[in-house]
């Protein structure tokens, strides 16, 4: 049988790297079947297009996986496939929690012939088991799965369970070595995004893995998600830098301890944020710091209060979102019981950066405005230039890194999908770009900015 695995975009934004699930299922499919992969983020396709492809390629079965933000598009594509007589199996975090919706058992239309609930079925077993620039590719790698923290707004614990299980160090190291060999053969570069829910959840194990990566000369540039509380360990941060770590995603969520306690994330300590980020920056590792506005203790002005803190930190990539009640999370159930949901099935009409419930201490419009202030203040040409200049004492490569990253990340909020949008962003930031080009001719990638007087981080302003 010829099987199509399809990963939709959401029609609004695109991912910067492929989702791992398609490749895992392709590898696990028994011999005798041909598996074709299409990622809507790389190959745009509408309902008519997927129906035509299924007919012309004689596809016998279609598998569609989607997170909540892509589910509306996923359902439309599934309906188009089923309309031409081909069966559809759906899976992923949203469908796992909302199987009745996908199967039409909640009174709505049926979108799937079957759903894959494998993670939930295996959960009891898993608990017992425990645990050159010719090309540039960002590759997802999973070294472990599961998170015990159970933050109120997060789907991870409900989907993957609270038991932590890891691949062997050897299997991860071997995969990195294969990726490095592939990059060399292509005359290109490669970076890895460790998509573990919390890469350092077991610090002892993570240190062991990083030591083995270093010993095998398997270092590649990598990014991972790590909680701030786990980055207190100096040796761990040393190993992150030595093994190729360049960016760490930290879900800070809020600078208000009351907000953090309310969503069961009290292990985050806002008083430690600056120390953690400085510890990383001293080793040329920088942070993607994620914040949520519209939490129950937030009031108008939360963006500026947060920005004042951010301005005292080493430059990184701050990102801002809204508190979103995802299906089957404790947050969703709490808001539903309180009658505070304004769009109970918000995923059926995906609107980026739009609340689906009423905050307690501000209006929905005020929450939206706070997010706008956060993004505008952090990703204006002036803010980008100041972030780059704050690293004048660092090698040029660090400054180029932060410039490229900020230009890319601004596209999360500001429309930046087409060539003209990118051209506009480049023109707006031409002063900073030309400054780095001039410095490159002077000192190369590893030289500091010429005669740059860099102020301490505590005095930087976006």
3D structure, described in words:
There is one protein chain. The protein has 462 residues and is an alpha/beta fold. The protein has two domains: 2-116, Rossmann fold; 125-443, pyruvate-formate lyase- activating enzyme, CATH 3.80.30.20. Helix content is 42%, strand content 15%. The strands form three sheets. A six-stranded parallel sheet has the order 6-9-10-11-12-13. The protein has a five-stranded parallel sheet with strand order 2-1-3-4-5, sandwiched between helices. The chain has a two-stranded antiparallel ribbon with strand order 7-8. Strand 9 (189-194), helix 9 (203-215) and strand 10 form a beta-alpha-beta unit. It is globular.
Any key phrases for this structure?
Rossmann fold, 2 domains
Question: What is this structure's SSE topology?
Answer:
Blueprint: E1 2-7, H1 21-28, E2 34-39, H2 47-56, E3 61-65, H3 71-83, E4 87-91, H4 93-97, H5 99-102, E5 114-115, H6 118-129, E6 136-141, E7 144-145, H7 156-160, E8 165-166, H8 169-186, E9 189-194, H9 203-215, E10 221-225, H10 234-242, E11 245-253, H11 257-262, H12 273-281, E12 286-293, H13 302-310, E13 317-322, H14 330-337, H15 364-379, H16 381-389, H17 396-409, H18 419-428, H19 430-443
Parallel strand pairs: 1-2, 1-3, 3-4, 4-5, 6-9, 9-10, 10-11, 11-12, 12-13
Antiparallel strand pairs: 7-8
Helix pairs in contact: 2-3, 8-9, 9-10, 13-15, 16-17, 17-19
């Amino acid at each position: 049988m010829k099987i199509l695995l399809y990963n939709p975009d959401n029609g609004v934004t695109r991912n910067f790297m492929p989702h791992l699930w398609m490749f895992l299922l392709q590898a696990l499919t028994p011999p005798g079947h041909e598996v074709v992969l299409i990622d809507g983020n790389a190959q745009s396709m509408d309902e008519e297009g997927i129906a035509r492809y299924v007919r012309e390629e004689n596809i016998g079965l279609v598998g569609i996986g989607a997170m909540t933000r892509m589910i509306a598009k996923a359902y439309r594509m599934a309906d188009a496939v089923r309309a031409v007589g081909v069966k559809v199996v759906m899976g992923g975090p949203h469908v796992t929690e909302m199987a009745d919706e996908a199967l039409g058992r909640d009174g709505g239309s049926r979108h799937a012939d079957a759903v894959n609930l494998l993670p939930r079925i295996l959960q009891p077993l898993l608990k017992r088991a425990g645990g050159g620039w010719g090309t540039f590719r960002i590759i997802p790698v999973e070294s472990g799965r599961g998170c015990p923290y159970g933050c109120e707004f997060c789907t991870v614990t409900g989907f993957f369970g609270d038991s932590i299980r890891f691949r062997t160090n050897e299997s991860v190291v071997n995969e990195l070595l294969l990726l490095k060999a592939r990059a060399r053969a292509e005359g290109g570069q490669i970076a890895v995004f460790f998509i573990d829910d919390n890469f350092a959840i077991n610090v002892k194990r993570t240190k062991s893995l990083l030591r083995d990566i270093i010993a095998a000369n398997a270092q590649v540039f990598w990014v991972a998600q790590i909680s701030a509380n786990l980055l207190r360990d100096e040796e761990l941060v040393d190993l992150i830098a030595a093994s190729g770590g360049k960016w760490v995603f930290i879900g800070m969520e809020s600078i208000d301890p009351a907000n953090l306690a309310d969503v069961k994330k009290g292990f985050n300590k806002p008083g430690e944020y600056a120390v953690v980020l400085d510890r990383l920056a001293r080793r040329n590792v920088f942070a993607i710091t994620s914040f949520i506005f519209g939490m129950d203790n937030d009031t108008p002005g939360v963006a500026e209060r947060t920005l004042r803190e951010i301005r005292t930190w080493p430059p990184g990539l701050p990102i801002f979102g809204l508190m979103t009640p995802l299906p089957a999370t404790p947050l969703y159930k709490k808001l539903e019981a309180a009658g505070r949901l304004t769009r109970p099935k918000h995923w059926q009409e995906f609107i980026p950066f739009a609340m689906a419930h009423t905050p307690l201490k501000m209006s929905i419009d005020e929450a939206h405005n706070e997010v706008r202030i956060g993004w505008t203040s952090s990703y204006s040409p002036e803010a980008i230039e100041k972030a780059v200049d704050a690293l004048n004492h660092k090698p040029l490569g660090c400054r180029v890194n932060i410039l490229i990253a900020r230009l890319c990340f601004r596209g999360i909020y500001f429309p930046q999908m087409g060539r003209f949008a990118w051209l506009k962003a480049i023109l707006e930031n031409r002063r900073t770009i030309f400054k780095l080009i001039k410095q490159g001719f002077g000192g190369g990638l590893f030289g500091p900015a010429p005669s740059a007087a860099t102020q301490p981080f505590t005095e930087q302003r976006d």
